[in-house]
């Protein structure tokens, strides 16, 4: 069996990255989803290749590679933002390799299986976590092709012109049983570009130490990993840390969990074992404000953590209530203060432009970010992700979204949704205003200059300054 896995071109790569002013603020990281699938296949003695188009493989180059490989099975992963690229690849591949079986997995097909499988270029959709499902599919296809698909859980397929959804598959409870991602099948780490304010040392990799998020944010799709929290053991995680450090020369880790600090006991144990194993490495993580404590943050700092990212979402109490029902502004403020007191850099993510947004709430969010001296603020356009609560609300209200068309999250003028209280131009203007007001304050610039400790930090800060300045130009 010849198996190829594809990560489609990063949506920004096609729409923005050719613009050097904006390329600097892209974040392109290795695709762990397909790397996990490949690792499971290799453990079961299958040969597999990965093509990661996010690092600049053109579609023409990809198609040439695939024609030469002549694969029996092609697996393509896709978010809603990369679905247009995934569909185009599958359609071209279908014409050139009609006998190849093409499967699509990832968040988009999981959230919209009927709509995705209506595209006849895909033979099978893998719903939810794909490691066990895809392995079973490969074994089935090796034995009998596309016959007997009805016996496989966690897939969508067509039969007699209709899209059939098979019985759902349970989530993987013991994540320790999964092999580490097959990073050796991915391009060199030097080909990737982490966001410039998110690291201190290169090369950097990201590690997922848990799956599932119980927070229930209305703008987030939880379809793939679900709301049930499952975590790897501290020893299993640190085994992977040591592997990437020794094999790939990694100097920094970003823990890419939705909520790294949800299980405080596990984080305390990890920090202790980092010292016991004498692991010297910088790391960062994502956290939710009601999952941290002063003691935990100090422990993390002592174990090598230098930056924590919070999804603060909004600086307006009313909007925050709709986006994140269990979090208050007071909790946001306390979390930022505790992290700063522990000596951690703070990155904050704000979702702006949701249905409840107003001019006043936008200003409240910007003022919040400025008032608490957050190190880096990301003002992210609201995106109606399929599978999220807000997406379902908007669909019921009559909104329709075509994900077969490309959409850019970084281009200010490319807006998929505008709140009713604002015009499109008013919203676009605020996106540029927020970045200018936050990053170009004299007090902010002075604080950044004073905080610089190394030549590398100086270069990164200068580069960041010009990247953000150029990004805000039309």
CATH architecture label name of the largest domain:
Alpha-Beta Barrel
What's the total helix number?
18
Spatial shape: globular
Strand content: 15-25%
Q: Give the mean pLDDT.
A: 92
**How many strand units?**
15
CATH fold annotation of the largest domain: TIM Barrel
The Rg value, from CA coordinates, equals 22 Å
**Annotated CATH homologous superfamily of the largest domain:** Aldolase class I
Query: What is the number of independent domains?
Result: 2
Structure explained in plain terms:
Helix content is 40%, strand content 15%. Strand 6 and strand 7 form a beta hairpin. The mean pLDDT is 92. The protein has two domains: 163 residues, Rossmann fold (3-Layer(aba) Sandwich), CATH 3.40.50; 242 residues, Alpha-Beta Barrel (TIM Barrel), CATH 3.20.20. Helix 14 packs parallel to helix 16. Strands 2-1-3-4-5-6-7 form a seven-stranded mixed beta sheet, with helices on both faces. Strands 8-11-12-13-14-15 form a six-stranded parallel beta sheet. A two-stranded antiparallel sheet has the order 9-10. The longest helix is centred in the C-terminal third of the chain and has 17 residues. With 474 residues, the chain is of the alpha/beta class. It has 18 helices and 15 strands.
Layout of strands and helices, then pairs:
Elements (H helix, E strand, L loop, with lengths): L2 E5 L3 H5 L4 H4 L8 H12 L4 E5 L6 H11 L3 E5 L5 H14 L4 E5 L1 H5 L1 H5 L6 E3 L4 H14 L10 E5 L2 E4 L38 E4 L2 E2 L18 E2 L2 H15 L3 E4 L8 H13 L5 E6 L6 H9 L2 E9 L3 H7 L5 H13 L3 E8 L6 H13 L4 E6 L7 H8 L27 H16 L2 H10 L3 H17 L3
Parallel strand pairs: 1-2, 1-3, 3-4, 4-5, 8-11, 11-12, 12-13, 13-14, 14-15
Antiparallel strand pairs: 5-6, 6-7, 9-10
């Amino acid at each position: 069996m010849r198996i190829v896995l594809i990560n489609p071109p990063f949506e920004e790569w096609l729409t923005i990255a050719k613009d050097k002013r904006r390329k600097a603020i892209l974040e392109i990281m290795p695709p762990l989803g397909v790397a996990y699938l490949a690792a499971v296949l290799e453990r079961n003695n299958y040969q597999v290749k990965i093509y990661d188009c996010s690092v600049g493989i053109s579609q023409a180059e990809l198609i040439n590679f695939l024609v030469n490989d002549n694969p029996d099975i092609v697996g393509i992963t896709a978010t809603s933002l990369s679905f247009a690229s995934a569909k185009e690849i599958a359609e071209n591949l279908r014409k050139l390799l009609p006998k190849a079986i093409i499967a699509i997995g990832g968040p988009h097909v999981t959230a919209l299986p009927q709509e995705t499988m209506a595209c006849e270029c895909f033979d099978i959709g893998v719903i939810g976590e794909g490691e066990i499902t895809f392995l079973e599919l490969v074994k089935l296809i090796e034995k009998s092709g596309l016959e007997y698909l009805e016996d496989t859980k966690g897939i969508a397929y067509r039969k007699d012109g209709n899209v059939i959804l098979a019985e759902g598959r349970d989530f993987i409870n013991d994540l320790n049983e999964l092999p580490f991602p097959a990073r050796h099948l991915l391009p060199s780490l030097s080909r990737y570009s982490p966001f410039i304010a998110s690291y201190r040392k290169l090369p950097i990799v990201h590690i997922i130490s848990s799956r599932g998020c119980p927070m229930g944010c209305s703008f987030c799709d939880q379809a793939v990993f679900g709301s049930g929290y499952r975590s790897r053991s501290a020893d299993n995680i640190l085994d992977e840390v040591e592997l990437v450090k020794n094999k790939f020369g990694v100097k920094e880790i970003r823990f890419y969990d939705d909520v790294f600090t949800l299980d405080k006991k596990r984080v305390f144990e990890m920090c202790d074992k980092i010292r016991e194993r004498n692991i010297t490495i910088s790391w960062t993580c994502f956290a939710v404000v009601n999952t941290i404590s002063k003691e935990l943050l100090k422990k993390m700092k002592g174990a090598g953590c230098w930056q924590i990212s919070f999804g603060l979402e909004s600086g307006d109490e009313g909007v925050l209530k709709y986006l994140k029902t269990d979090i208050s502004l007071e909790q946001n403020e306390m979390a930022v203060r505790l992290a700063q007191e522990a000596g951690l850099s703070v990155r904050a993510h704000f979702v702006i432009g949701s249905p409840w947004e107003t001019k006043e709430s936008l200003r409240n969010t910007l003022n919040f970010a400025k008032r608490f001296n957050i190190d880096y603020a990301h003002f992210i356009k609201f995106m109606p992700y399929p599978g999220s609560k807000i997406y379902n609300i908007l669909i019921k209200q009559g909104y329709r979204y075509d994900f077969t068309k490309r959409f850019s999250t970084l281009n200010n003028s490319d807006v998929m949704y505008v709140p009713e209280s604002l015009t499109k131009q008013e919203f676009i203007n605020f996106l540029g205003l927020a970045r200018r007001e936050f990053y170009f304050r004299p007090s902010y610039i002075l604080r950044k200059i004073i905080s610089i400790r190394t030549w590398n930090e100086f270069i990164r800060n200068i580069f960041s300054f010009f990247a953000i300045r150029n990004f805000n130009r039309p």
